[in-house]
Write a structure and sequence with these properties.
Elements: E1 5-11, H1 16-29, E2 34-40, H2 46-59, E3 63-67, H3 72-79, H4 89-108, E4 111-116, H5 124-137, E5 143-145, H6 147-150, H7 155-165, H8 172-175, H9 192-201, H10 203-220, E6 226-228, E7 231-233, H11 235-246
Parallel strand pairs: 1-2, 1-4, 2-3, 4-5
Antiparallel strand pairs: 6-7
Helix pairs in contact: 3-4, 9-10, 9-11
The structure holds iron/sulfur cluster (SF4).
Length: about 270
């Protein structure tokens, strides 16, 4: 039998769902038995920090933050692999690794972490994947819980509660139309629609991402974040296509597929 004292750890990402999960966790277990855990990729939008600190104040908890120190680009350069929707080593290096280290640190202190994820009722398959994932990552399996899924709590409802009842403004990325608030719009798991949105809202950040992709291409050859018809399709090519659409020369992007997959480690 596990003699360690349970500690409830919300995987705090800067998104609305993880904030609400933290609230449910504290309501159930009391703040003295709870923690907010945030892994920083150094690509986060500044307004996410504002949101996280306001939520932490509201719950009466400190944020436990871990920073690997590398950005996703530095991970891509070191591992010589540009992340994409199918495989994103930024996630495993900057988030999962820090989480596993933290889990073992807690165990060394006689605590047994239970992880809480902001996965909603429409994402059951992701909960199953995560359960399995964290069941094998640390030295011993870690329990993962999904209160939104268990309580059938929908995204739209929890966002309303946060803004209207708690009086905390959601991260600006939601208002700007992004599907999730992670990594400041630069998520390499984002698909065509995500990057179209990024180009429209923050063309300079799109350009930064395009330049990063080019640096990786200079090093590694014909690699890209997006794929079209199973082949590399660069952000430069996509930007040129989007510019034609914006100028009215082309109606829709040809073969526009959207394979946007939110980060495996963080959630809305
Ligand atoms: S949100 Fe996207 S870019 Fe950021 S760490 Fe996760 S997979 Fe990588």
């Amino acid at each position: 039998m596990n003699a360690r004292k349970p500690v409830h750890v919300a995987m705090f990402s800067g998104g609305a769902a993880s904030a609400y999960v933290a609230y449910l966790m504290v309501q159930t277990h009391g703040k003295d038995n709870c923690m907010l855990f945030f892994t920083n990729t150094l690509w986060e939008d500044n307004d996410n920090y504002r949101f996280m600190y306001e939520i932490a104040d509201y719950l009466g908890l400190e944020i436990t933050e871990r920073i690997d120190g590398r950005t996703p680009e530095e991970v891509f350069l070191e591992t010589r692999f540009l992340g994409n929707s199918r495989l994103a080593k930024c996630s495993s290096e900057l988030k999962v690794r820090q989480t596993v280290i933290f889990i073992e640190e807690l165990r060394d202190q006689g605590l047994e972490p239970i992880l809480y994820f902001g996965i909603g009722p429409h994402e059951r398959h992701r909960a199953d994947n995560l359960k399995d994932f964290y069941g094998h990552q640390a030295l011993e399996p870690v329990e993962a819980r999904f209160p939104l899924l268990d309580g059938n709590i929908k995204d739209v409802n929890l966002k309303e509660v946060i803004e209207n009842e708690w009086g905390i403004k959601l991260p600006r990325m939601y208002d700007l139309g992004f599907s999730h608030a992670n990594c400041g719009g630069r998520c390499v798991r984002g698909g065509f629609n995500h990057y179209r949105q990024l180009h429209q809202i923050w063309p300079d950040i799109y350009k930064a991402q395009e330049d990063m992709e080019q640096r990786l291409r200079d090093l590694l050859g014909n690699v890209s974040i997006l794929k079209r018809d199973g082949k590399p399709f660069t952000l430069e090519e996509y930007r040129q296509e989007l510019e034609l659409i914006e100028q009215g020369y082309q109606e829709i992007a040809i073969g526009l597929e959207d394979d946007t997959v939110p980060c495996v480690c963080v959630f809305t």
